[in-house]
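Researcher: I'd like a candidate sequence for this fold, 422 residues long. If you have to choose between options at a position, lean toward the conservative one.
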């Protein structure tokens, strides 16, 4: 099969959608398929994802010139500065800037059609409702190429993007299949978009499937880890507040954070004020698979206290390394973190988060049992052996249905065994 993965752009080193697209493309190529990636905007030459695709021999093409991407980045920076200075009209500036970007990207539809006519993929796989996705889907539909759309988060989240998502929803009926990452997200998609055909589950593929976790860390200090953007919705300040409470009971704990974001300075100030600056290590952003694995292996427990999530790659990565999980009960997280794998806490409940940290810090046997269960669940759900048959089956069904003139696969063929596929 000839499979084309499409996004508007690569948006940063800790991006779940980027990671999913690149990993799918690489693993499917290794399985004997012809895969490629198409971006609207040109990424940086030394972008870690670009290098991974290059090393794997997966072609990466772009529609816009490097100059266009640079200009768009500059315009985005100016808009952000304007919103900070002119806060009373922030929403107006935000809406107008998004409209400008959306309209600019629609101008590449003709170039996208020419590209698809030239390359003729059997199926196009589009991820996330980013600004270029509307154009990509319309172009593929016009060129009569079957389209799979994959929602990697939760519809209409995060807050503030509702207008953009409403515009995106209009093109979903053009897709042969709409998919998402776990059963809970299928239910959520059906709830908020009842007029769209029932979605299918298409799990992500984890990275660290070879070799498994290293031996458990031998240290008197229990290390809790967090890897995400240091932004409000990911909860780094709530994590610090819970850590402060837990430290009153368990002093032999530390906090290790991988990521950058707007709350970095606030985190540093609050940790200093609490007298815990030495216990809170801000490690910046990891950019390679090896750095990511090393970070996860430096932890005893992984924590993600987000207000909203889809199916977080970082939890899957922690599970691959045999780490017990503490996370908020949001989005698709309950599909990952069962009772034997970790502890789920109510969203924004800082005391419950602190209690979970104390419980795991105080019980090394529980950490070990949960870590082993996490690794087993990873092997069951997220290895290439578990996921590639699901991907291949869906692509084959979509291609076959398209050739027969059907708008949907209708579940005509037997589905590969996977715990999330019925």
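Model: Candidate sequence:
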């Amino acid at each position: 099969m000839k499979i084309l993965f499409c996004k508007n752009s690569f948006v940063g080193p800790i991006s779940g959608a980027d990671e999913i697209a690149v990993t799918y493309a690489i693993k499917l190529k290794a399985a004997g398929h012809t895969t490629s990636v198409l971006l609207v905007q040109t990424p940086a030459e030394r972008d870690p994802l670009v290098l991974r695709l290059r090393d794997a021999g997966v072609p990466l093409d772009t529609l816009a010139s490097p100059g266009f991407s640079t200009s768009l980045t500059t315009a985005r920076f100016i808009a952000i500065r304007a919103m900070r200075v002119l806060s009373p009209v922030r929403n107006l500036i935000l809406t107008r800037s998004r409209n400008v970007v959306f309209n600019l990207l629609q101008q590449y539809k003709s170039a996208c059609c020419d590209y698809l006519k030239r390359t003729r993929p059997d199926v196009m796989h589009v991820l996330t409702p980013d600004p270029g996705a509307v154009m990509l889907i319309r172009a593929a539909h016009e060129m009569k190429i079957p389209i799979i759309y994959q929602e990697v988060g939760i519809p209409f989240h995060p807050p503030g993007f509702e207008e953009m998502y409403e515009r995106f929803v209009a093109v979903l009926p053009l897709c042969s299949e709409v998919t998402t990452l776990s059963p809970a997200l299928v239910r959520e998609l059906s709830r908020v978009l009842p007029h769209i055909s029932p979605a299918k589950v298409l799990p992500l593929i984890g990275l660290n499937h070879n070799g498994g976790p290293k031996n458990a860390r031998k240290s008197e200090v229990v290390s809790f880890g967090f890897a995400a953007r240091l932004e409000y919705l990911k909860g780094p300040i709530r994590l610090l507040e819970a850590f402060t409470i837990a430290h009153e009971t368990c002093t032999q704990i530390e906090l290790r954070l991988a990521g950058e974001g707007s709350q970095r300075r606030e985190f540093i100030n609050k940790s200093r004020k609490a007298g815990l600056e030495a216990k809170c290590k801000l490690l910046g952003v990891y950019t390679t698979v090896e750095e990511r694995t090393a970070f996860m292996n430096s932890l005893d427990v992984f924590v993600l206290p987000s207000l909203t999530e889809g199916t977080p790659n970082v939890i899957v990565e922690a599970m691959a390394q045999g780490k017990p999980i503490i996370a908020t009960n949001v989005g698709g997280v309950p599909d990952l973190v069962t009772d034997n794998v970790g502890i789920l806490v109510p969203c924004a409940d800082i005391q419950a988060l602190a209690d979970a940290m104390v419980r795991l810090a105080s019980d090394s046997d529980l950490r070990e049992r949960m870590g082993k269960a996490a690794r087993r669940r990873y092997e069951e759900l997220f290895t290439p052996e578990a996921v590639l048959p699901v991907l291949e089956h869906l692509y084959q069904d979509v291609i076959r249905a398209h050739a027969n003139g059907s708008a949907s696969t209708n579940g005509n063929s037997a589905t590969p065994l996977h715990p999330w596929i019925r």
